[in-house]
Each structure stands twice: as structure tokens, then as C-alpha cells.
Amino acid sequence: MGRVLRGFAHYPRALPIGIFVAIAALTAVGVWAIEKSQTQARVNELQQIATAASSALERRANANTAYLRAGAALLATQPEISAPMFQTFVGQLRLDANFRGAEGIGWAARVDSAEIPAFEARMREIGADSFTVHPLPRSDQAYAVPVTFLQPLTERNRRALGFNMFSERIRRAAMLEAERQSRPTASGKVVLVQEGQEEAMPGFLSYMPVFEVNAADGTRRLKGYVYSPFNAQDFLESALEGELPNRAHIQLYDGDIQPDNLLAELRVGETGGESLTTRVNVGNREWTMRVQSLKSSMLSEIAVIVLLAGLVVATLALAIAWLLTRQAADARQVIGILEEQAAIRNSLTRELNHRVKNTLANVLSIVSLTRRRASDLDSFATSLDGRIRALSATHDLLTQSEWGTTPVRSVIEVEMAPYALGRESIVEMQGPPVDLAPNDALSLGLAIHELATNAAKFGALSVPDGRVEVVWDLVSDNLVRVRWQESGGPTVPQDRPRGFGTELIEKIVAHELRNPVDLVFEPGGVRCTMLIPVRTRSEFMIRARRDADRVKKD
């Protein structure tokens, strides 16, 4: 737990984002549960629709079957079936709404192949002027079953008169099955002759065989069929009228679900939801009915409400958590600033103590050496004043850089300013940009001061034609070489006594720079070479070391 809290402290944005993600996840789970229950509800609704639709179709089929059974019972008792008698029979049935979807009721007599011409003649005699049996039976077929009567005799139904239904494979199979079982049997998918074109909407026929019984031996012979032709789409719409909710799409197939087997469909919208299939028995034939729910929106209304509410709550929680964590972060930042300021103040105090001790040590060394070399009070004061001023000038540079690094050129320019003022041509300085640490800059400034003072008294700066050249270059990444060379001045005596400046440079400066100083009094002029370390800030600043240590700990 503590590790988690520390993690939130380092990453304050993680807490509000975590709260938002948690609430969003709970909302997503809720929406998923709601959608799952809605899906199950739609499946249950489809099951109810499928049950109701299949019952309606079977009721309509059973009603049609009842009419055909009644017709078969009546026609089986008649020695001869005439047009008026059949018309009277159909009229007495008083077909009601249960017979909607059918083209009517028809009679198709069995006619032996040899009797077809005589049959056609009798039909013309009773008023069917252009009656012909078509197509004629094949040589392997013993009889034809032409449409003889069809009521009501509409213009559409007139097209079917004389059509030999036994010549077509699907109709023939249904008639043979009806004869075998002696019960109403529906055919497969066909295009009714009434439609007049092969591309018309599909339909089916329901056949009931009519037999005549031989009283002598009790055998029976097929007399014909009483049948009903149906447009499949009309049959489906009439059967389900008023019972189909507007939340489902129904397709009716003759057999398996295949595009070629589609009989009819009721489309009330775009599909895309759940679906189920069920079997429907119509006229002793199994059909397949597929019920599909309509394509709905991505989410239900309840799920959308829950989702919006969850997003609102998550957003509010995010805003509140963000404000609280921001306040906590600001508070931690203020505390951190105060702690850093206190640490800086302590570091500056330690640095100041360190600098003051170093400076006082240099001053004491200068005073001690000056006192040993001074012959009187005035010379002591003059020498001491110049050297203290050299330290002060370098200190001013260090103050301007906030006791950071100081360029070599700046140190040399400050110390040479009193001698090069108005006489730039006699002092030449050249070298790359190199920065020195504070203590190293003080030592270099003190050495340049001593060399310049000596040159002004006895060397190149004491005569108009004298020149001083100060050149520096990097020996390595952490070491710079500074060379002092005088020329054009008085000849330097080789037996001259060693003075304070020599001891100051060779002892104090060399000690502070941690490298020997090569000071040579050549006849042509003084030459001095110093090696000065080039250090990074972390090597000489307490605050920098403390910051580096803190970064490592983090």
C-alpha cells in the first residue's frame, strides 16, 4: 500500500486517471450486463413470435385441408362431376377469411391418355371452347391430370384450365404422395400457371385425392384431385395478418434454408440481430421458418442511459480527484521549494565558510611572505596592497559568476587591465574558451598579478617597446596550459636574487593548482608556464554535489 501511495506521489496524474478508469470499467460491465439481458429478452421474444407464426400457418393450412377433405367426400359420391355441380359445391362452402391466400378450389380429373381427345370434346361441349390438355402425357405416362374446373373462375384462373399438372415433376410428386396416403398433401415450390411467367412469385398447391369405389369387389380407382393453388406470399401474409410484431422478419423456405428454396418473406425493416429457425408442417409437408430480429442501434436505451450516467460520474470523479491531487501536488511542491531553499541556504553557508577560509589562508600566506621580504613599513604596505587588490579583482569576477566557473581570458584581462590600458598593442592574449573553478581562478589571478607587477618594475612593461604575450591551450579535457612570455624589455640579470613574487608563484600558486609552475628568468625576458586543472561544477560546488546525489537517490 505504501508503495502505491509513493507511486501516486511521484505521478499525481495517475490517481484521477485510475479513478476514471475504474468507474468507466464498472460502467462498461453494467452496460455489458444490460445488453446481455436485452439480447436474451429479444431471443425470448423471437421464440414467442416463431411459436405464434408457426401456429397461425398450421391453422390456416388445416382450414384449407378441411375444405379439401369436404370436397373430396362430396365428389367421391358423384358418378359424374359437372361444371354446375362443382360451382354449386364451392358456393355452398361459403369460403370465409380462413381461405384467404388461396387462388380458389379446383377439380382436376384423371384422364387416361387414350381418352384425352374425347375428354377435350366434352369440355368444349359444356362451354370451354378452347379447352385443350397441355402438355400431353409422355409415352411412359398412362394418364394426365388436367385442371378441369377452378372456382372462382377469374381471368387468372382461366389460364390454368387444361394444364396437365401430372406432367410437371414437383406437382406429380405431391399428387402421388397424396394418393399413397389418401390425405391432403402440399407440393414443393412452384410457379403457378396463373402467374403466366417463370419469374413470377413462387407458390404451392395442396392436393386431396378423390377415389371411386367398385361396389362389386370393393377396389378403388383414382378419380381425380380436388386441390387449391396458393401464392406463397399471399398465404404467409394472410396467415400472419395481425400477429406479426414489428420487431421481427420472417422467411419461409420449402425444406432447408437456401436461396432457391425461399417461398415468401415478411420484411418489416433491416435485419441484423438475433435469429432462430423452426419447422412448420403445412399439408403433410415440412417447411422451415426463420425469424430474425430487426437491426437495432448499437446499444439499448437503458444501456445508453447507464453509459451516459457512468461517463458523467467518471468525469466528475476525475475532475474532483484532479483538483485534490493538484492541490496536494502544489502543497508538496511548496514544501519541496522550502526544503530546497533551506538546503541551498545551508549549502551557501558551508560554501561561504569554505571560500572565506581559503581566502584568509591566501591572505595570511601573502602577509607572511611580504613581511619576510619587506625592508620597511611602506614597501610592506605597498606590496600587500597590490596583492590584496589582485585577490579582490578576481573575487569580483567570481561574484559576478555567482562563484561558478570563470573564463581564463576574464581573469587575465582583469589583472592586466592597469598595465594594458591604452597600450593594447604591448599585451597579447590568445587562447580557446576555458572556464576555471573559483580557487583555480584566484590562484591564476594572483600569479598573473605577480608576473605583471614584476614586468612593470623590471621587465617588458617597464619600457615602451616591451611586449607581453599570454597564451593558453588545452593539454587535455581536464588540463589547460597558460604560458607567460616577455620580450623587448631590459636584459634580465642571471644573478638576481629570488624575490617574493618568485616564491609566491612557485609555492602558493603551485600548491593551489596542484601542478608545478615552470618560472624561468631568461635574458630576453621572463617565461612562466602553469598547468591548471579544468574541473566540472560537481567537483567544486557543494550544492551541485548535493543535487547529483539527490538525482542518484531518486
TrEMBL record:
Entry's Gene Ontology cellular component terms: membrane
GO BP terms in the entry: signal transduction
TM segment ranges: 14-34, 302-324
Key words, A-Z: ATP-binding, Kinase, Membrane, Nucleotide-binding, Phosphoprotein, Transferase, Transmembrane, Transmembrane helix
Catalytic activity entry: ATP + protein L-histidine = ADP + protein N-phospho-L-histidine
Compartments, as annotated in UniProt: Membrane
One of the record's GO molecular function terms: ATP binding
InterPro entries: CHASE_dom (IPR006189), CHASE_sf (IPR042240), HATPase_C_sf (IPR036890), Sig_transdc_His_kinase_HWE (IPR011102)
Domain CHASE: 77-241
EC number: 2.7.13.3
Listed name of the protein: histidine kinase
Annotated organism of origin: Croceicoccus naphthovorans
Taxonomic lineage from the root: Bacteria, Pseudomonadati, Pseudomonadota, Alphaproteobacteria, Sphingomonadales
